[in-house]
Structures are given as structure tokens and as C-alpha cells.
Amino acid sequence: MTNPASGLTAAEEADYIQESAESYGSHPDVIDPPESVEVRRWVRPEEVDRVRRGCIEEAGFPANPDGSFSYPGQENSFWRTWYVCQVSYPIIPKYDQEWDRAQIEAQYEWTTKFLIPCLEDHGTVVDHIPSRDVFIATWETSPFYPWKYVPPISGAEALELEDLCLQIAPSDVLWESQPVTPYTGLPYGRPSVSLTPSGKHP
Q1: Do the beta carbons of residue 117 and residue 184 sit within 8 Å?
Q2: Helix, strand or coil for residue 72?
């Protein structure tokens, strides 16, 4: 039976999680990872950084304004926590794949209809926007990222702007043919994400 949250069978989940655990456990700063970690929730790519960062904060390591962490004298404890939070919140596999033309086309729609207007609304002037054909043709070799036009700002300001003006299109736009229009009709920014196993937004 397939788990609706992951799109995998129990056996496939076990293999996927084991592979992820081995990958994160190979980080040179992870010295003593726990033998097993419970998956709390399967997450989408656009929320994974915030969810995992929140997990680390819940464990007692407050994030700096720019989203980084300081942990003097607690290196082993921090990296053990980091490992647990990576494995606890795996990315939904169907959203973690190589892109084909459909995803690049969706990214173009997102870039031109949401991302650029969002950045311009926050004071960034975006020049030299490629045509749709050029955007698609050059994505794999020289992708167009309007963020390169953002003027120098602090780490904290960059983190806030990144949260408001999501650079990569959400999973439903990329993989489920969700139109960009509903996003353009809403205030910029994304809803806060729950860390509970249910995954329900507050």
C-alpha cells in the first residue's frame, strides 16, 4: 500500500530514508548520528529549509538573523541535531527529480508572473529578461535568475526577501500544472509551516 504523504510503499520508504540517512551521516561534522530517526513529516522542496531550520531551533539552537547557526562548545550536539532534522523531514520524492521541459516552462511562468513582480515590488529593478524561448533553451546551461539583480543587502534582509519572493516555483506549479495566477492574486510571502506530523498549516 502506498503512503499518500510520500507516494511510496513501506519498502520504498525504508530504502529512501536509509539512503538519505547514509548521505547525511557522511557529513564530516556528523560524528555520532543516532541509529534510527523517526520521520515526522514528508515536506515539499519549497518548505524544507524553513522546516528543518525550525526543527533545529526547537532542539535549542536559535538561528541567527541570517538563518545561520552559532554553537560554540556544542559542535557534536549541534551536528547530531542537524542530522536528526534532515532525516526527520525528507523531501517528497516525486518533487525531488530532474526537470524536463514541462518544469522549465512552469519556471518561466513563475519567474515572469510572480518572481520578477515580487522583486520589483521590493525595490529591485530587473533588466534583460529573456524571451520564453531563450529562457527555456538556456536553462540547463545558463539559467536566468532575477535574484542576481538584487542589490547588496544584509543576510537577514536576504532571508526575508527569499521567503517573500520564492525563486524556484512551488511544487504544485512545477509538477501538478497549478497555474501561477492564484499566487499573483495573493500578498507576497508564504504561509508558516507546522512542524507537527500532521503537516497542517496553523
Answers
A1: yes
A2: coil
Q: What is the DSSP letter of 180?
A: S
The secondary structure of residue 94, as a DSSP letter, is G
What are the pLDDT digits (tens) for 100-153?
A: 999 999 999 999 999 999 999 889 999 899 999 999 999 999 999 999 999 988
Report residue 145: phi and psi, to 5°. -120, 110
Could you write out the DSSP letters of every residue in 124-163?
Answer: -----PPPHHHHHHHTTTS---GGGGSPP--HHHHHHHHH
Cβ neighbours, 10 Å, residue 41: 21
pTM: 0.81
Q: Read out DSSP for 101-134? A: HHHHHHHHHHIIIIIHHHHHHTT-----PPPHHH
Query: Tell me: the pLDDT tens digits for 146-196?
Result: 999 999 888 889 888 988 899 999 999 999 999 998 888 665 554 333 343
